Each structure stands twice: as C-alpha cells, then as structure tokens.
Amino acid sequence: xxxxxxxxxxxxxxxxxxxxxxxxxxxxxxxxxxxxxxxxxxxxxxxxxxxxxxxxxxxxxxxxxxxxxxxxxxxxxxxxxxxxxxxxxxxxxxxxxxxxxxxxxxxxxxxxxxxxxxxxxxxxxxxxxxxxxxxxxxxxxxxxxxxxxxxxxxxxxxxxxxxxxxxxxxxxxxxxxxxxxxxxxxxxxxxxxxxxxxxxxxxxxxxxxxxxxxxxxxxxxxxxxxxxxxxxxxxxxxxxxxxxxxxxxxxxxxxxxxxxxxxxxxxxxxxxxxxxxxxxxxxxxxxxxxxxxxxxxxxxxxxxxxxxxxxxxxxxxxxxxxxxxxxxxxxxxxxxxxxxxxxxxxxxxxxxxxxxxxxxxxxxxxxxxxxxxxxxxxxxxxxxxxxxxxxxxxxxxxxxxxxxxxxxxxxxxxxxxxxxxxxxxxxxxxxxxxxxxxxxxxxxxxxxxxxxxxxxxxxxxxxxxxxxxxxxxxxxxxxxxxxxxxxxxxxxxxxxxxxxxxxxxxxxxxxxxxxxxxxxxxxxxxxxxxxxxxxxxxx
Length: 539
Description:
Layout: E1 10-14, H1 18-28, E2 35-39, H2 42-51, E3 56-60, H3 69-78, E4 87-92, H4 97-100, E5 110-113, H5 118-133, H6 136-143, H7 147-160, H8 166-178, H9 182-195, H10 199-211, H11 215-228, H12 233-245, H13 249-262, H14 267-280, H15 283-296, H16 307-316, H17 321-334, H18 339-355, H19 359-376, H20 382-394, H21 398-412, H22 416-428, H23 432-458, H24 462-475, H25 480-497, H26 500-517, H27 522-538
Parallel strand pairs: 1-2, 1-3, 3-4, 4-5
Helix pairs in contact: 2-3, 6-7, 7-8, 8-9, 8-10, 9-10, 10-11, 10-12, 11-12, 12-13, 13-14, 14-15, 14-16, 15-16, 16-17, 16-18, 17-18, 18-19, 18-20, 19-20, 20-21, 20-22, 21-23, 22-23, 23-24, 23-25, 24-25, 25-26, 25-27, 26-27
C-alpha cells in the first residue's frame, strides 16, 4: 500500500494566509485524504475540531490576532478534541527556544519550518504516521477509555518485540499512572532505568513519587535531570510543584523565575510564579508575573481573569493604588467585553476600594459582580471566593459573605486548609462565631444531600439516585464526591439492568469531572475499573 494514500484520513490546515492554504491543498490533494478542511484562524480551527474527527492537523504557529498555533494545540488536547493517535504538526517561520518551549505539556508531534517543499512535508508526515501506526489498536482502546485493555495491548506488543518500542513503553507508563496503579508504575520505570539512563523515564518516575507524596525522592529525580539538561522545562515545572508541596516557597519561586526566563509563554506557569511570589512578599515579581499571565492567557484556554485581582493585590502591596486603577481601566478598554472580564474587573475594583477605605464604592462593585454571577451562573474559583468573602466582611455585608462561603463549602467541604482560611477571615473581622456557624451548617447540608442519594442507591432505587445526584452535580459541579456518586449510581444501574449504552458515556463524564477536581481520590480509580469492565461486556 502506498504510504501516501491517506484514504480514511481527514486533514485540517490552519493558516491565516490565503495563498498558503491554497498551496497546502495543492500539496495534499494527490494524497487522496477523505477530507481536507481549512481554517483561517484559531476560532475556526477549534470550531472544526469540535464538529469533526480530525486525523491530521497542519497548523501555522503565527495566525495574526487571536489564538496562535500553540494555543490551538493546547485547547484541542486539554478538551480532548483530538483522538489519542491524531497527528499535530506545527508549521513555523521561526524556531526560537521561547516558541518551542512555550507549553511543554502540549508539544506537537513535529515542527516543520517555512519554506518547505512538498517532499519535505510528505517525509515529515511519513515519519510521524509510521510512529503513530505502532499504537493504532492501543489508541483505539484509549479513545474508548478502556485503559486496562490498552495496557494489555502494550504488553502484547512489548512481548512480540521489546526493541524500537519507545512510544509503547511511554504509553504503558502513562496508563498505569492514569489508572492510579502507582506501585506498578514505580516498578515499571525503575526496571527500565536499571537497563539504561532514559531521561523521560526518570521524569515519569519523579512524577510517580510526587503522586505518592514522596516529595524527597521526587525532588532528587527532577534536580538530577535539570543538572544534566538545564533546558528540561518539564523537570523544572515538576520540581517547582514538589517544592511548593514541601513548603519550600522561596526555592519554588527561584526555580519558577529561572524556568520563565527560558519559557515565558505559559500563562499557567506565570500564574504559579505570581501566586508564590505574592505569598513570599516579592510583590514586584508577583506584579510582573500576573501581568504576563493576563497577557499570555488572553487567547488561551488556560487564561483566568481572576489574575486581575492578583495583579491588583500585588500593586496595592507596593502602594501603587493609582497604577492598579489604571491597570483595570486598561483591561476594560483593550480586552473583549465578556461577562468574565466585567466580573473580575468589578471584583478587583472592590479590593482597591476595600484597601483605600471607600466602603460605598466597594459595595457598588460587589453588587455589580454579584448580579453578573447570578445572571450568568458564574462560579468563583477558591482564591476569588476568599477575596470576595474578605471584601464582604470589610463592608459588613454578612449576607453576601455567607452566600459565597456556602458555595465554597459545597465544593470543598473536606478541604480543611481552605476552610481554616475562611475562618481566619471571619476571625480577623471579629465574627468568628458567625463564620464557624456558616461553615458547619453548609457542611451538614452537603453531607445530608450526599447521604440521601447514597441511601436511594442502597435501597435499590437507582433511577432516583441517578436523577438525584445528576441534579446535585448541576448545582455543585466542582464537588468531586457528588460527581463520583453520580457515576457510581449509573454504574450500579448498568450492572443491574445491562443498559450500558444508555449510561456509560454520561458516567464517564461524571468520573472525569470528579477526577479533574480531585486527581488523587481513590474512588476514581475504583470506578473507572468497573466502567471498563462494563464497556468490555458491551463490546
């Protein structure tokens, strides 16, 4: 079979230049792909990825205003818009380290520099497609979320031929971690490393140690990798995570500053540096990092307008009140006027007026923010919720503070550290008793809701339990326990009635949402195994 017969393959070309899109179509046409789709910008690219299953993406890095190629890749991978075996090739006129290291967690399968010939593009495609072909059946199992089957297929391939199977080895290790089989993953990577020094296996072993809360051994792995390869951005990111968990905040900040010098384009990395620097009292560094997080996140799915409040707090701490006000006005004027922008500029303004003792203006901004939250059903992240609680207490609005705390507790009722932060805010305001009462009352409500749903399931009223937890999850989308219990009720119903196709996709959605909120919760790993068994029965 001719390798360049792309029958049954769909290709998406993303380029803002009309002539380049036409040239790419001309190059690809003889390869007989089933579909060749074109996008002029990031918005069109994401829309096509949402609507179609794309096998190959050829994407220019620079796309004018809006998302760049890296941000398209990040969003596509983050939102699972690409199948496991899909190919993403970045086309670029530049190969700067800042561009290549922009977001180490979401690397393309290959880069190709302009100008290139048709044969050069074909050679790159051949190389990547041959590499991906080794994982075809494994990828199919992963796309169906049958991770245990995918591991078995990996082991089968490795048994057939242990050589030239780097991608299979990597995939097996990733799947062991995905399923929470951390002891197996540790043994797997240690066995590989006994044979030879493999940097990616050392990085993965460090991640396993991190997930097992073995921060000392994790740090040793990441630091040794950094010494051997100072440009290993992933090792630096993981070392920063490890130092933060270990409470070594000054060292964490130093590592992040060094990493950002090499790779400044990640809004997530800039945000982490900003938060750590703010905590360390390095307000000038926090200010600069928050500015970068806002700027880099402007067209990224990882952008978070809550960074505006962080920027304002870092500026206020330097007594730069007028500059903070100007920063908010700049964002209002130059950024797209979304509800998210309106909400977070209002919240940031309320912080300024809180700190300058202007209660009336503070209250006006709080009221504007709450109207947006209620109209658009916007839920605050925990840091913003703490800021709002503090501001509400400062203007003696106990009712609004109570609403925010109730929502915070509904999502994080088992997070003792966060609830202690809430209590500290009430204590500082001289209202500790009120704070403790709200927290306890809210916790009991959540426990009662959860117990009621569990009781229905135990009584065999599975349909009622499913509806109960699904409705509860709508009101508390960031409560991991509720999401896991919704999935559990569906799994029990499938086991009882055999209605697998009816409930399996939705149960997986609840499982993945719960896992996203609480990645270390063992319920996920227990339930995903049951879901896999049901999926195998249905196959």
